[in-house]
Amino acid sequence: MASGQLLRAEALACSGCRHACHVMLYSDTKTQLFGRIPIRHIVLMQMRFDGLLGFPGGLVDPLEETLEAGLSRELSEELGLALPIVVEDHVESRYAPASSPSSPSSSSSRLITHFYVKMMEEEQIREVERVAASTATDHGQEVLGMVRVPLYTMKGGGGLASFLSHSFIGNARSQLVDSLLRFNLVASGDLHKALTHSLKIHAHAVDDLRAALALTEVQKKQL
Amino acid sequence: MASGQLLRAEALACSGCRHACHVMLYSDTKTQLFGRIPIRHIVLMQMRFDGLLGFPGGLVDPLEETLEAGLSRELSEELGLALPIVVEDHVESRYAPASSPSSPSSSSSRLITHFYVKMMEEEQIREVERVAASTATDHGQEVLGMVRVPLYTMKGGGGLASFLSHSFIGNARSQLVDSLLRFNLVASGDLHKALTHSLKIHAHAVDDLRAALALTEVQKKQL
Fold first, then answer.
1. pTM of this prediction?
2. Bridge-partner residues for A145, per DSSP?
3. pLDDT (0 to 100) of residue B152
4. Minimal CB count within 10 Å: which of A51, A62, A100, B191?
Protein backbone atom coordinates (compact mmCIF):
# COMPACT_ATOMS: atom_id res chain seq x y z
CA MET A 1 0.00 0.00 0.00
CA ALA A 2 1.43 3.43 -0.98
CA SER A 3 2.28 5.93 1.74
CA GLY A 4 -0.60 8.08 2.96
CA GLN A 5 -3.15 5.39 2.25
CA LEU A 6 -5.44 3.87 4.85
CA LEU A 7 -7.24 0.55 4.91
CA ARG A 8 -11.01 1.03 4.64
CA ALA A 9 -11.42 -0.43 8.16
CA GLU A 10 -8.67 1.82 9.58
CA ALA A 11 -10.33 4.86 8.02
CA LEU A 12 -13.71 3.96 9.50
CA ALA A 13 -12.14 3.51 12.94
CA CYS A 14 -11.22 7.20 13.08
CA SER A 15 -13.73 8.75 15.43
CA GLY A 16 -14.24 12.41 14.68
CA CYS A 17 -13.00 12.20 11.10
CA ARG A 18 -15.20 13.42 8.29
CA HIS A 19 -15.60 11.10 5.30
CA ALA A 20 -16.00 11.97 1.60
CA CYS A 21 -16.71 9.32 -1.05
CA HIS A 22 -16.22 9.86 -4.78
CA VAL A 23 -16.38 7.59 -7.81
CA MET A 24 -14.86 7.46 -11.26
CA LEU A 25 -17.43 6.06 -13.70
CA TYR A 26 -16.02 4.81 -16.99
CA SER A 27 -16.67 2.58 -19.96
CA ASP A 28 -14.80 1.21 -22.94
CA THR A 29 -15.69 2.63 -26.35
CA LYS A 30 -14.87 1.78 -29.95
CA THR A 31 -15.66 5.29 -31.20
CA GLN A 32 -12.95 7.41 -32.76
CA LEU A 33 -12.47 11.18 -32.64
CA PHE A 34 -12.80 12.64 -36.16
CA GLY A 35 -12.98 9.03 -37.37
CA ARG A 36 -9.26 8.43 -36.77
CA ILE A 37 -8.17 8.97 -33.12
CA PRO A 38 -9.25 6.06 -30.87
CA ILE A 39 -11.10 7.42 -27.81
CA ARG A 40 -10.75 4.00 -26.08
CA HIS A 41 -12.48 4.88 -22.79
CA ILE A 42 -15.12 7.35 -21.62
CA VAL A 43 -14.23 8.70 -18.16
CA LEU A 44 -16.68 11.05 -16.41
CA MET A 45 -15.83 14.03 -14.22
CA GLN A 46 -17.85 17.13 -13.39
CA MET A 47 -17.61 20.89 -13.08
CA ARG A 48 -18.50 21.52 -9.44
CA PHE A 49 -20.45 24.44 -7.91
CA ASP A 50 -17.12 25.82 -6.60
CA GLY A 51 -15.71 26.11 -10.13
CA LEU A 52 -13.30 23.18 -9.76
CA LEU A 53 -13.23 19.84 -11.57
CA GLY A 54 -13.91 16.74 -9.50
CA PHE A 55 -15.59 13.35 -9.37
CA PRO A 56 -19.25 12.80 -8.45
CA GLY A 57 -19.84 12.10 -4.76
CA GLY A 58 -19.81 13.93 -1.45
CA LEU A 59 -19.75 13.74 2.34
CA VAL A 60 -21.02 10.58 4.05
CA ASP A 61 -21.64 10.01 7.77
CA PRO A 62 -20.70 6.36 8.52
CA LEU A 63 -22.78 6.51 11.70
CA GLU A 64 -25.91 6.94 9.58
CA GLU A 65 -25.22 4.79 6.52
CA THR A 66 -22.47 2.68 4.93
CA LEU A 67 -19.91 4.54 2.80
CA GLU A 68 -21.27 2.85 -0.31
CA ALA A 69 -24.93 3.60 0.47
CA GLY A 70 -24.00 7.24 1.12
CA LEU A 71 -22.10 7.47 -2.15
CA SER A 72 -25.04 5.94 -4.06
CA ARG A 73 -27.33 8.53 -2.46
CA GLU A 74 -25.02 11.37 -3.54
CA LEU A 75 -24.94 9.97 -7.07
CA SER A 76 -28.72 9.81 -7.29
CA GLU A 77 -28.83 13.54 -6.43
CA GLU A 78 -25.99 14.61 -8.74
CA LEU A 79 -26.62 12.29 -11.67
CA GLY A 80 -30.33 11.61 -11.28
CA LEU A 81 -29.94 7.83 -11.48
CA ALA A 82 -29.77 4.91 -9.07
CA LEU A 83 -26.20 3.61 -9.38
CA PRO A 84 -25.46 0.98 -6.76
CA ILE A 85 -21.86 1.20 -5.51
CA VAL A 86 -20.47 -1.82 -3.66
CA VAL A 87 -17.45 -2.47 -1.41
CA GLU A 88 -15.74 -4.24 -4.35
CA ASP A 89 -15.65 -0.90 -6.22
CA HIS A 90 -13.49 0.64 -3.46
CA VAL A 91 -9.98 1.55 -4.61
CA GLU A 92 -8.35 3.55 -1.84
CA SER A 93 -8.86 5.71 1.24
CA ARG A 94 -6.51 8.45 2.37
CA TYR A 95 -6.37 11.67 4.34
CA ALA A 96 -7.28 14.69 2.21
CA PRO A 97 -4.42 17.08 1.45
CA ALA A 98 -4.11 20.32 3.39
CA SER A 99 -6.69 22.87 2.27
CA SER A 100 -5.98 24.88 -0.86
CA PRO A 101 -6.54 28.64 -1.25
CA SER A 102 -9.78 27.85 -3.09
CA SER A 103 -11.25 25.82 -0.24
CA PRO A 104 -9.90 26.75 3.18
CA SER A 105 -11.03 24.33 5.83
CA SER A 106 -13.56 25.74 8.26
CA SER A 107 -13.51 22.60 10.36
CA SER A 108 -10.77 21.19 12.55
CA SER A 109 -11.75 17.54 12.02
CA ARG A 110 -9.65 15.68 9.47
CA LEU A 111 -11.17 14.67 6.18
CA ILE A 112 -10.69 11.15 4.79
CA THR A 113 -11.40 10.66 1.09
CA HIS A 114 -12.63 7.27 -0.12
CA PHE A 115 -12.30 6.60 -3.81
CA TYR A 116 -14.24 4.12 -5.94
CA VAL A 117 -14.03 3.12 -9.60
CA LYS A 118 -16.98 1.57 -11.44
CA MET A 119 -16.89 0.26 -14.97
CA MET A 120 -20.12 0.53 -16.93
CA GLU A 121 -21.47 -0.11 -20.40
CA GLU A 122 -21.07 2.77 -22.87
CA GLU A 123 -24.85 3.09 -23.16
CA GLN A 124 -25.13 3.47 -19.36
CA ILE A 125 -22.56 6.29 -19.42
CA ARG A 126 -24.58 8.05 -22.12
CA GLU A 127 -27.70 7.62 -19.99
CA VAL A 128 -25.87 9.21 -17.01
CA GLU A 129 -24.93 12.21 -19.19
CA ARG A 130 -28.49 12.60 -20.50
CA VAL A 131 -30.16 12.45 -17.10
CA ALA A 132 -27.50 14.53 -15.30
CA ALA A 133 -28.14 17.41 -17.73
CA SER A 134 -31.93 17.26 -17.46
CA THR A 135 -33.75 15.88 -14.41
CA ALA A 136 -30.99 15.47 -11.79
CA THR A 137 -31.78 17.43 -8.61
CA ASP A 138 -28.30 18.94 -8.40
CA HIS A 139 -28.09 20.09 -12.05
CA GLY A 140 -27.24 23.79 -12.04
CA GLN A 141 -26.76 23.59 -8.29
CA GLU A 142 -23.93 21.37 -6.98
CA VAL A 143 -23.12 20.25 -10.51
CA LEU A 144 -22.47 22.78 -13.31
CA GLY A 145 -22.01 20.07 -15.94
CA MET A 146 -20.61 16.59 -16.63
CA VAL A 147 -17.49 16.34 -18.81
CA ARG A 148 -15.61 13.46 -20.41
CA VAL A 149 -11.86 13.24 -19.88
CA PRO A 150 -9.91 13.06 -23.18
CA LEU A 151 -7.38 10.23 -22.78
CA TYR A 152 -5.79 10.69 -26.20
CA THR A 153 -3.00 13.04 -27.24
CA MET A 154 -3.49 14.89 -30.53
CA LYS A 155 -0.76 15.85 -32.97
CA GLY A 156 -0.33 19.34 -31.51
CA GLY A 157 -0.27 17.97 -27.94
CA GLY A 158 -3.90 18.73 -27.06
CA GLY A 159 -6.09 16.24 -25.20
CA LEU A 160 -5.10 14.64 -21.90
CA ALA A 161 -2.26 17.13 -21.22
CA SER A 162 -4.58 20.15 -21.53
CA PHE A 163 -7.22 18.50 -19.39
CA LEU A 164 -4.75 17.72 -16.61
CA SER A 165 -3.66 21.38 -16.51
CA HIS A 166 -7.07 22.53 -15.18
CA SER A 167 -7.82 23.20 -11.49
CA PHE A 168 -9.12 20.25 -9.45
CA ILE A 169 -10.66 19.89 -5.99
CA GLY A 170 -8.55 18.25 -3.26
CA ASN A 171 -6.71 15.21 -4.62
CA ALA A 172 -9.01 14.63 -7.62
CA ARG A 173 -6.20 15.10 -10.16
CA SER A 174 -4.08 12.45 -8.40
CA GLN A 175 -7.09 10.16 -8.07
CA LEU A 176 -7.61 10.46 -11.84
CA VAL A 177 -3.94 9.84 -12.70
CA ASP A 178 -3.69 6.96 -10.25
CA SER A 179 -6.84 5.31 -11.65
CA LEU A 180 -5.74 5.70 -15.27
CA LEU A 181 -2.56 3.78 -14.33
CA ARG A 182 -4.22 1.25 -12.03
CA PHE A 183 -6.87 0.23 -14.57
CA ASN A 184 -4.45 0.50 -17.46
CA LEU A 185 -6.56 3.09 -19.31
CA VAL A 186 -3.50 5.07 -20.44
CA ALA A 187 0.03 3.67 -20.81
CA SER A 188 2.38 4.84 -18.06
CA GLY A 189 4.82 6.44 -20.51
CA ASP A 190 2.05 8.33 -22.32
CA LEU A 191 0.65 9.60 -19.04
CA HIS A 192 4.10 10.75 -17.95
CA LYS A 193 4.55 12.64 -21.23
CA ALA A 194 1.09 14.21 -20.92
CA LEU A 195 1.77 15.43 -17.37
CA THR A 196 5.14 16.88 -18.38
CA HIS A 197 3.45 18.77 -21.23
CA SER A 198 0.66 19.74 -18.85
CA LEU A 199 3.13 21.67 -16.66
CA LYS A 200 4.10 23.74 -19.73
CA ILE A 201 0.49 24.48 -20.66
CA HIS A 202 -0.15 25.44 -17.05
CA ALA A 203 2.83 27.81 -16.93
CA HIS A 204 1.81 29.40 -20.24
CA ALA A 205 -1.68 30.19 -18.87
CA VAL A 206 -0.26 32.69 -16.36
CA ASP A 207 0.31 35.32 -19.07
CA ASP A 208 -3.23 34.82 -20.35
CA LEU A 209 -4.63 35.14 -16.83
CA ARG A 210 -2.65 38.37 -16.30
CA ALA A 211 -4.01 39.74 -19.60
CA ALA A 212 -7.57 39.04 -18.40
CA LEU A 213 -6.76 40.77 -15.10
CA ALA A 214 -5.49 43.80 -17.05
CA LEU A 215 -8.91 44.03 -18.77
CA THR A 216 -10.55 44.65 -15.40
CA GLU A 217 -7.94 47.29 -14.55
CA VAL A 218 -8.70 49.22 -17.75
CA GLN A 219 -12.39 49.02 -16.89
CA LYS A 220 -11.77 50.34 -13.36
CA LYS A 221 -9.94 53.38 -14.74
CA GLN A 222 -12.78 54.09 -17.15
CA LEU A 223 -15.36 54.19 -14.35
CA MET B 1 -12.60 50.45 -29.99
CA ALA B 2 -9.90 48.77 -27.88
CA SER B 3 -6.51 48.00 -29.41
CA GLY B 4 -6.25 44.78 -31.37
CA GLN B 5 -9.89 44.86 -32.38
CA LEU B 6 -11.11 44.95 -35.95
CA LEU B 7 -14.35 46.17 -37.44
CA ARG B 8 -16.41 43.27 -38.79
CA ALA B 9 -16.06 44.71 -42.32
CA GLU B 10 -12.29 45.18 -41.92
CA ALA B 11 -11.96 41.58 -40.75
CA LEU B 12 -13.93 40.26 -43.72
CA ALA B 13 -11.75 42.25 -46.11
CA CYS B 14 -8.67 40.21 -45.14
CA SER B 15 -8.12 37.85 -48.03
CA GLY B 16 -6.33 34.72 -46.91
CA CYS B 17 -7.33 35.04 -43.26
CA ARG B 18 -9.10 32.17 -41.55
CA HIS B 19 -12.22 33.05 -39.53
CA ALA B 20 -13.53 31.47 -36.32
CA CYS B 21 -16.89 32.42 -34.80
CA HIS B 22 -17.91 31.68 -31.22
CA VAL B 23 -20.86 32.66 -29.05
CA MET B 24 -21.59 33.15 -25.38
CA LEU B 25 -25.14 31.99 -24.65
CA TYR B 26 -26.59 33.23 -21.38
CA SER B 27 -29.79 33.86 -19.47
CA ASP B 28 -30.90 35.54 -16.28
CA THR B 29 -32.03 33.29 -13.43
CA LYS B 30 -33.69 33.79 -10.07
CA THR B 31 -32.40 30.48 -8.68
CA GLN B 32 -30.04 30.46 -5.70
CA LEU B 33 -27.20 28.06 -4.92
CA PHE B 34 -27.99 26.14 -1.71
CA GLY B 35 -31.04 28.41 -1.38
CA ARG B 36 -28.96 31.43 -0.37
CA ILE B 37 -26.31 32.43 -2.98
CA PRO B 38 -27.88 34.25 -5.98
CA ILE B 39 -26.74 32.58 -9.22
CA ARG B 40 -28.02 35.62 -11.20
CA HIS B 41 -27.00 34.45 -14.69
CA ILE B 42 -26.43 31.13 -16.45
CA VAL B 43 -23.46 31.39 -18.83
CA LEU B 44 -22.60 28.37 -21.02
CA MET B 45 -19.13 27.18 -22.01
CA GLN B 46 -17.92 23.75 -23.07
CA MET B 47 -15.13 21.25 -22.54
CA ARG B 48 -13.62 20.86 -26.00
CA PHE B 49 -12.16 17.75 -27.66
CA ASP B 50 -8.67 19.19 -27.07
CA GLY B 51 -9.19 19.26 -23.29
CA LEU B 52 -9.54 23.06 -23.08
CA LEU B 53 -12.51 25.19 -22.09
CA GLY B 54 -14.06 27.37 -24.78
CA PHE B 55 -17.26 28.74 -26.27
CA PRO B 56 -19.42 26.88 -28.81
CA GLY B 57 -18.58 27.67 -32.43
CA GLY B 58 -15.87 26.96 -34.98
CA LEU B 59 -14.28 27.84 -38.30
CA VAL B 60 -16.36 29.60 -40.96
CA ASP B 61 -15.46 30.30 -44.60
CA PRO B 62 -16.97 33.70 -45.51
CA LEU B 63 -16.71 32.81 -49.22
CA GLU B 64 -19.25 30.03 -48.65
CA GLU B 65 -21.64 31.47 -46.07
CA THR B 66 -22.08 34.53 -43.85
CA LEU B 67 -20.26 34.48 -40.51
CA GLU B 68 -23.59 34.24 -38.70
CA ALA B 69 -24.94 31.40 -40.88
CA GLY B 70 -21.67 29.52 -40.35
CA LEU B 71 -21.84 30.01 -36.58
CA SER B 72 -25.48 28.81 -36.52
CA ARG B 73 -24.42 25.71 -38.46
CA GLU B 74 -21.63 24.97 -35.96
CA LEU B 75 -24.09 25.40 -33.08
CA SER B 76 -26.56 22.96 -34.62
CA GLU B 77 -23.77 20.34 -34.71
CA GLU B 78 -22.38 21.03 -31.23
CA LEU B 79 -25.61 21.76 -29.38
CA GLY B 80 -28.11 19.85 -31.52
CA LEU B 81 -30.47 22.81 -31.84
CA ALA B 82 -31.24 25.48 -34.44
CA LEU B 83 -30.11 28.73 -32.80
CA PRO B 84 -30.23 31.61 -35.26
CA ILE B 85 -27.37 34.08 -34.70
CA VAL B 86 -27.71 37.53 -36.27
CA VAL B 87 -25.33 40.43 -37.00
CA GLU B 88 -26.78 42.30 -34.00
CA ASP B 89 -25.34 39.59 -31.69
CA HIS B 90 -21.79 40.42 -32.87
CA VAL B 91 -19.59 41.86 -30.11
CA GLU B 92 -16.06 42.02 -31.45
CA SER B 93 -13.55 40.68 -33.98
CA ARG B 94 -9.82 40.46 -33.41
CA TYR B 95 -6.70 38.59 -34.46
CA ALA B 96 -6.22 35.40 -32.44
CA PRO B 97 -3.24 35.41 -30.05
CA ALA B 98 -0.03 33.64 -31.04
CA SER B 99 -0.39 29.89 -30.72
CA SER B 100 -0.03 28.34 -27.28
CA PRO B 101 1.95 25.17 -26.45
CA SER B 102 -1.34 23.27 -26.46
CA SER B 103 -2.31 24.29 -29.98
CA PRO B 104 0.64 25.16 -32.19
CA SER B 105 -0.46 26.65 -35.48
CA SER B 106 0.06 24.37 -38.46
CA SER B 107 -1.08 27.06 -40.88
CA SER B 108 0.65 30.28 -41.85
CA SER B 109 -2.62 32.16 -42.50
CA ARG B 110 -3.73 34.45 -39.70
CA LEU B 111 -6.78 33.55 -37.67
CA ILE B 112 -9.44 36.17 -36.89
CA THR B 113 -11.87 35.39 -34.06
CA HIS B 114 -15.39 36.80 -34.18
CA PHE B 115 -17.29 36.82 -30.93
CA TYR B 116 -21.05 36.94 -30.39
CA VAL B 117 -23.23 37.12 -27.30
CA LYS B 118 -26.84 35.96 -27.27
CA MET B 119 -29.23 36.33 -24.38
CA MET B 120 -31.87 33.62 -24.06
CA GLU B 121 -34.64 32.54 -21.72
CA GLU B 122 -33.60 30.26 -18.85
CA GLU B 123 -35.78 27.47 -20.23
CA GLN B 124 -34.01 27.71 -23.62
CA ILE B 125 -30.62 27.38 -21.90
CA ARG B 126 -31.86 24.26 -20.10
CA GLU B 127 -33.06 22.89 -23.44
CA VAL B 128 -29.60 23.50 -24.94
CA GLU B 129 -28.01 21.55 -22.06
CA ARG B 130 -30.46 18.66 -22.42
CA VAL B 131 -30.06 18.29 -26.17
CA ALA B 132 -26.27 18.87 -26.18
CA ALA B 133 -25.83 15.91 -23.79
CA SER B 134 -28.06 13.56 -25.76
CA THR B 135 -28.75 13.91 -29.50
CA ALA B 136 -26.17 16.53 -30.63
CA THR B 137 -23.92 15.16 -33.42
CA ASP B 138 -20.74 16.42 -31.76
CA HIS B 139 -21.48 15.05 -28.27
CA GLY B 140 -18.51 12.93 -27.20
CA GLN B 141 -16.68 14.09 -30.31
CA GLU B 142 -15.87 17.82 -30.61
CA VAL B 143 -17.72 18.51 -27.36
CA LEU B 144 -16.89 16.62 -24.14
CA GLY B 145 -19.58 18.39 -22.13
CA MET B 146 -21.36 21.71 -21.55
CA VAL B 147 -20.63 23.57 -18.29
CA ARG B 148 -22.12 26.59 -16.59
CA VAL B 149 -19.78 29.36 -15.43
CA PRO B 150 -20.22 30.15 -11.71
CA LEU B 151 -20.39 33.97 -11.45
CA TYR B 152 -20.66 34.05 -7.65
CA THR B 153 -17.90 34.01 -5.06
CA MET B 154 -18.42 31.74 -2.07
CA LYS B 155 -17.24 32.39 1.49
CA GLY B 156 -14.02 30.41 1.05
CA GLY B 157 -13.30 32.11 -2.30
CA GLY B 158 -14.59 29.30 -4.56
CA GLY B 159 -16.71 30.01 -7.64
CA LEU B 160 -15.71 32.44 -10.37
CA ALA B 161 -12.05 32.65 -9.25
CA SER B 162 -11.56 28.87 -9.44
CA PHE B 163 -13.29 28.70 -12.81
CA LEU B 164 -11.08 31.44 -14.29
CA SER B 165 -7.95 29.51 -13.21
CA HIS B 166 -8.65 26.67 -15.68
CA SER B 167 -7.00 26.36 -19.12
CA PHE B 168 -8.84 28.02 -22.03
CA ILE B 169 -8.45 27.87 -25.80
CA GLY B 170 -7.06 30.98 -27.56
CA ASN B 171 -8.58 34.15 -26.11
CA ALA B 172 -11.69 32.49 -24.63
CA ARG B 173 -10.83 33.56 -21.07
CA SER B 174 -10.53 37.21 -22.15
CA GLN B 175 -13.72 36.92 -24.21
CA LEU B 176 -15.50 35.67 -21.08
CA VAL B 177 -14.09 38.39 -18.81
CA ASP B 178 -14.77 41.10 -21.39
CA SER B 179 -18.38 39.93 -21.86
CA LEU B 180 -19.08 39.72 -18.12
CA LEU B 181 -18.01 43.39 -17.89
CA ARG B 182 -19.67 44.55 -21.11
CA PHE B 183 -23.07 43.06 -20.27
CA ASN B 184 -22.73 43.94 -16.60
CA LEU B 185 -23.10 40.32 -15.44
CA VAL B 186 -20.45 40.71 -12.73
CA ALA B 187 -19.42 44.01 -11.09
CA SER B 188 -16.02 45.22 -12.24
CA GLY B 189 -14.57 45.24 -8.69
CA ASP B 190 -15.78 41.68 -7.98
CA LEU B 191 -14.33 40.44 -11.25
CA HIS B 192 -11.01 42.09 -10.46
CA LYS B 193 -10.94 40.42 -7.04
CA ALA B 194 -11.84 37.04 -8.55
CA LEU B 195 -9.04 37.25 -11.13
CA THR B 196 -6.51 38.27 -8.49
CA HIS B 197 -7.53 35.25 -6.38
CA SER B 198 -7.50 33.14 -9.53
CA LEU B 199 -3.78 33.79 -10.00
CA LYS B 200 -3.17 32.38 -6.49
CA ILE B 201 -5.25 29.26 -7.14
CA HIS B 202 -3.40 28.80 -10.43
CA ALA B 203 0.03 29.10 -8.76
CA HIS B 204 -0.99 26.66 -6.02
CA ALA B 205 -1.96 24.02 -8.61
CA VAL B 206 1.66 23.60 -9.73
CA ASP B 207 2.54 21.59 -6.60
CA ASP B 208 -0.48 19.37 -7.15
CA LEU B 209 0.45 18.84 -10.81
CA ARG B 210 4.02 17.92 -9.79
CA ALA B 211 2.64 15.42 -7.26
CA ALA B 212 0.58 13.78 -10.02
CA LEU B 213 3.68 13.68 -12.23
CA ALA B 214 5.60 11.96 -9.39
CA LEU B 215 2.93 9.21 -9.36
CA THR B 216 3.85 8.30 -12.94
CA GLU B 217 7.54 8.28 -12.03
CA VAL B 218 6.96 5.79 -9.20
CA GLN B 219 5.02 3.64 -11.64
CA LYS B 220 7.82 3.75 -14.21
CA LYS B 221 10.34 2.54 -11.62
CA GLN B 222 8.05 -0.31 -10.63
CA LEU B 223 7.81 -1.58 -14.20
1. 0.94
2. A47
3. 97
4. A62
